[in-house]
């Protein structure tokens, strides 16, 4: 079974303030961090609207990990997003589908490329094209453009942690990993939020019904 985690993380010193916003779930990760979930949190990479209000004075890291699909974070503070990262494991497929949409607008592209026998050779050609034109590497690099690691200082983490994040959150490091799932675990370890896993928002919503 795949992990679908999504929730908001911030420092323990803000816990009493966060309680004023009536979260549907709140739990300590450790003595430094806690996780909370607001009513409008979904199984999604999108920031809940409530975080915009909460972040007016409190820095919040919205973290999600959809194990087979990708993971990422969105750091909000002063009612604005100041850093973000989205790692998409099916990135090459996303690029291929975009190309197919341009060249074969009359087709159902998922069906055409991955089910219909007519599309098999075309999908192989598109993969080769993407790899030969460096589009895939460029797309990987774009995922890291808005990391803004300096923004993590809002969480009072040490310079050594910022340096370690800079070593792993980049396209070169990511491209060399044997397992693409390794990066999210390294990210959590650097921040000391290893316990941020299996926080399943959809199960919480189901329990309210």
Keywords:
10 helices; 209 residues; alpha+beta; six-stranded antiparallel sheet
Task: Describe what you observe in this structure.
By secondary structure, this protein is an alpha+beta fold. The protein contains 10 helices and 6 strands; from the N terminus they run βαββαβββαααααααα. The protein has a 6-stranded antiparallel sheet. Strand 5 and strand 6 form a beta hairpin. Helix 3 crosses helix 5. The chain is globular. The C terminus is likely disordered.
List the helices and strands and how they pair.
Blueprint: E1 4-11, H1 15-19, E2 25-28, E3 33-37, H2 49-54, E4 60-66, E5 70-77, E6 80-88, H3 91-103, H4 109-114, H5 118-132, H6 135-142, H7 159-168, H8 171-176, H9 182-191, H10 201-208
Antiparallel strand pairs: 1-3, 1-4, 2-3, 4-5, 5-6
What's a quick, concise take on this entry?
This protein is α+β, with helices and mostly antiparallel strands. It contains ten helices and six strands, in the order βαββαβββαααααααα. The protein has a six-stranded antiparallel beta sheet with strand order 2-3-1-4-5-6.
* Overall residue-averaged pLDDT value: 92
Helix/strand order, N-terminal first: EHEEHEEEHHHHHHHH
Structural category: alpha+beta
Largest sheet: 6 strands, antiparallel
Question: What assembly state would you assign to the polypeptide chains in this entry?
Answer: single chain
Give the terminus-to-terminus CA distance.
23 Å
Helix content range of the residues, please?
Answer: 40-55%
Number of helices: 10
Radius of gyration: 19 Å
The strand count comes to: 6
Strand order of the largest sheet: 2-3-1-4-5-6
Low-confidence blocks of residues: 205-209
Outline type = globular
Strand content: 15-25%
């Amino acid at each position: 079974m795949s992990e679908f985690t999504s929730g908001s993380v911030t420092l323990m010193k803000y816990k009493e303030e966060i309680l004023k916003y009536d979260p549907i779930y709140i739990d300590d990760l450790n003595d430094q961090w806690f996780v909370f979930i607001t009513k409008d949190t979904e199984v999604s990479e999108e920031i809940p609207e409530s975080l915009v209000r909460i972040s007016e004075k409190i820095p919040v890291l919205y973290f999600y990990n959809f194990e087979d699909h990708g993971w990422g974070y969105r750091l909000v503070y002063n009612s604005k997003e100041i850093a973000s990262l989205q790692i998409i494991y099916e990135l090459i497929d996303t690029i291929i589908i975009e190309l197919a949409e341009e060249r074969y607008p009359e087709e159902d592209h998922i069906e055409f490329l991955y089910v219909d026998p007519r599309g098999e050779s075309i999908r192989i050609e598109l993969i080769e094209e993407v790899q030969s034109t460096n589009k895939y590497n460029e797309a990987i690099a774009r995922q890291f453009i808005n990391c803004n690691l300096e923004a993590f200082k809002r969480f009072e983490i040490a310079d050594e942690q910022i340096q370690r994040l800079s070593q792993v959150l980049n396209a070169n490091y990511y491209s060399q990993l044997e397992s693409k799932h390794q990066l999210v675990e390294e990210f959590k370890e650097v921040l000391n939020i290893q316990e941020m896993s299996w926080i399943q928002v959809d199960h919480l919503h189901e329990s309210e019904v």
